[in-house]
Design a protein that fits this description.
The complex is a heterodimer of chains A (154) and B (501). Chain A has 154 residues and is an alpha+beta fold. Chain A contains 6 helices and 8 strands, in the order E-H-H-E-E-H-E-E-H-E-E-H-E-H. In chain A, strands 1-8 form a two-stranded antiparallel sheet. In chain A, strands 2-3 form a two-stranded antiparallel ribbon. In chain A, a hairpin with a 6-residue loop joins strand 6 and strand 7. Chain A is globular. Chain A starts with a strand and ends with a helix. Chain B has 501 residues and is α/β, with parallel strands linked by helices. Chain B is 30% helix and 15% strand. In chain B, strand 15, helix 8 and strand 16 form a beta-alpha-beta unit. The chains are: A alpha+beta (154), B alpha/beta (501). Chains A and B meet through helix 1 and helix 2 of A and helix 1 of B.
């Protein structure tokens, strides 16, 4: 299964991924409307460790996802491909998922009582954060591809 | 004192309907032009600081930003232009020498544009490079006066060392220090992929890049930074830099703030110390002295690498080039007055040196007259902008060209000519880690490969059109050129006929 991987040696901290994530998650799908008029949270968050190091964090879609186990209403579930998805309608806002996520990738919305997490843009299969990263710091890779990459790094 | 005569050169126009306050421009501008006001929830900008590098324009996700020439005008005056006035104000303010970056931007004739190429019609067939073989490979180095073969037809002459280039293009000398490590990596990887060479410049060679040695030309300049035995043997050729087109007769100065740990190790100088390249080589005051250095380098490398000598195109270039060939150089490199640089005194950059077209034609002619043209290859540089410039250069007598500015533009340079500030927003002319990161070698080496491949296709098309199937057959073939809008002296020096002749 393909997942989003971030590379901090390439990440500039420009936060364009956040802009495009909001667009992807909007109703209008219009970048200006999505960011100006619709109250949307970004599911990818650029973490800053110091002036020069940034890292774009998003859901890892764990094999044995703690958020699914913790969810008391069945709002978080794994779909047939393996994407950990979230159904806003079923959510009762207990925030258990936020508490158990080891990466801090499930976050409480800034605008309402739901939570926000990455769904890998499953409806299009092409995550907008990946295609709009100006420095190739975010990539959509197979687990095998990332293993090969790590081999090179070692 | 608050009196400051500086007025903005550019005006930033932000479309309020499009701006989404994402602050990407704020984060990306190293010149701190943009700033966000949380009180008003708008992004503002300070026109005074803008250098017009287009980083914010390109990265703005809603394309809300436009940069224009500032509308502020001085009263019209053809003599006291706004530029002339501003330069005086700047010097009155600082008391310093004016510094500029990249090549001479002044409105002086570009002779490439006044030379036209030939094509075959009826009497000789043109060649379609997509269907027929077309050779763009060139060999750089000294060629023997005679070739001898044994009875079996095998070559028995000892060939001097040659560098094989798949395309008659190399990336010119830009030192590690003046440009970033990532930029160097992109150039090195692109050169390797293309089967051409890049030049280290005078800042030594980073240990990480020794693996690209087969496509590297190492430079020895007046500062001798990072020069030692392994360095000289790391590449396939060695270039002695006497001068460069942007600043003939002037040395170099890399400010101490750009000499970080890595640059310091590579250049073999203390961290934070200014790297000053003297104007002359202090051991070269004559052709004989140059010969000593050439042969010292040949000895060090066991006569296995061609030695390049690079000079700026100056008034007496032909005689100097002749001396250089006689001193034992295998390749003469001539850099024209439009050549780029990280920083040069403005007056020198804009007023010293001659156009490369004339230097090339006169050097080629002189070497031919003296019967030593085969003793050295002739490489030219100094604002090669496209493939037709290259074809014209080869027809005027060049073996290959160096491109610098064009390669940087492929990697993102927008010619804002602010290299000397060290705050290159595109990660090229900077050593600041957060800016260097912006140049991703994985992306940029592909763009360089694309550029050279595209030019290679175009060169083949133009050669084919002339009915020529190899770069070698075009070299010095001035009958393929005609001049337009040139006077008789210009035509004579270039050695070409007028259109219609």
């Amino acid at each position: 299964m393909k997942k989003i991987y971030s590379f901090e040696d390439k990440c500039l901290g420009c936060k364009l991924c956040e802009v495009y994530c909001k667009t992807a998650r909007s109703k209008s799908k219009n970048i200006i409307k999505a960011n100006k008029e619709e109250n949307i949270d970004s599911a990818i968050i650029v973490e800053k460790t110091n002036k020069d190091t940034h890292f774009a964090l998003q859901c890892r879609h764990c094999t044995d996802a703690k958020c699914i186990k913790a969810c008391i209403s069945g709002a978080i579930f794994k779909d047939e491909i393996g994407i950990v998805r979230y159904d806003k309608e079923k959510c009762v806002s207990c925030l258990s998922c936020v508490l158990v996520c080891p990466f801090g990738a499930v976050r409480k919305s800034d605008f309402n009582s739901t939570v926000t997490k990455c769904d890998l843009c499953f409806s299009t299969g092409k995550p907008l954060c990946v295609s709009n990263c100006p420095n190739d710091a975010i990539k959509f890779l197979d687990e095998k591809e990332i293993d090969d990459r790590m081999e090179i790094v070692k | 004192m608050s009196l400051n005569f500086n007025t903005p050169l550019f005006e930033i126009i932000r479309d309020k309907n499009k701006c989404i306050q994402c602050k990407v421009c704020v984060r990306q501008c190293a010149n701190e032009v943009h700033w966000y006001s949380s009180y008003e929830n708008i992004v503002n900008s300070d026109n005074n600081k803008c250098v017009n590098c287009h980083r914010c324009v390109i990265l703005c996700p809603t394309k809300a930003i436009t940069i224009r020439k500032h509308r502020l005008e001085f009263r019209n005056n053809s003599n006291w232009t706004s530029n002339a006035i501003k330069e005086i104000q700047k010097q009155a303010d600082t008391g310093g020498v004016l510094l500029s970056s990249m090549g001479n931007p002044n409105k002086l004739p570009i002779y490439w544009d006044k030379i036209l190429l030939n094509a075959s019609q009826v009497t000789n067939p043109s060649i379609d490079p997509l269907r027929e073989p077309m050779e763009t490979k060139v060999m750089i180095g000294r060629k023997p006066d005679k070739l001898k073969f044994n009875k079996q037809g095998d070559l028995i002459t000892d060939m001097p060392p040659q560098i094989e280039l798949n395309v008659p293009i190399m990336f010119s000398a830009m030192s590690y220090g003046s440009i970033s490590k990532n930029a160097h990596e992109a150039l090195a990887r692109a050169a390797t992929k293309l089967g051409i060479c890049y030049n280290t410049g005078e800042g030594g060679l980073n240990k990480d890049f020794y693996k690209y040695g087969k496509n590297t030309i190492v430079q020895v300049a007046s500062g001798r930074f990072g020069v030692y035995k392994d360095y000289l043997n790391a590449g396939v050729g060695i270039e002695i830099k006497i001068g460069q087109g942007a600043k003939p007769g002037i040395g170099g100065h890399l400010p101490g703030k750009k000499v970080g740990a890595d640059v310091s190790v590579t250049r073999m100088i203390p961290i934070g110390s200014d790297a000053i390249s003297p104007a002359p080589h202090h051991d070269i005051y004559s052709i004989e002295d140059l010969r000593q250095l050439i042969f010292a380098l040949k000895e060090t490398t066991n006569y296995s690498k061609p030695i390049f000598v690079k000079i700026a195109a100056v008034h007496n270039a032909a005689a100097i080039a002749s001396g250089i060939v006689r001193a034992g150089a295998d390749v003469v490199v001539v850099d024209g007055f439009r050549g780029g640089t990280g920083a040069a005194p403005t007056r020198v950059r804009d007023n010293v040196g001659i156009p490369i077209e004339f230097a090339l034609a006169s050097i080629d002619q002189r070497l031919r007259e003296e019967g030593i043209r085969n003793s050295a290859s002739l490489v030219i540089s100094g604002s090669i902008r496209n493939s037709s410039d290259i074809v014209k250069a080869i027809a005027l007598g060049a073996d290959a060209v160096y491109i610098g500015s064009a390669a940087l533009i492929a990697m993102g340079c927008h010619m804002c000519r602010s290299c000397s500030t060290g705050k290159c927003n595109w990660g090229i002319a900077t050593q600041q880690y957060d800016l260097v990161k912006r140049l991703n070698p994985d992306i940029m080496y592909k763009r360089l490969v694309n550029l050279i491949s595209a030019w290679n296709h175009e060169i083949q098309e133009m050669l084919g059109g002339m009915g020529i199937n190899a770069v070698d057959s075009l070299r010095g073939n001035k009958l393929m050129l005609r001049g337009i809008d040139l006077n008789e002296t210009e035509l004579r020096i270039l050695g070409i006929k007028y259109v219609g002749e």
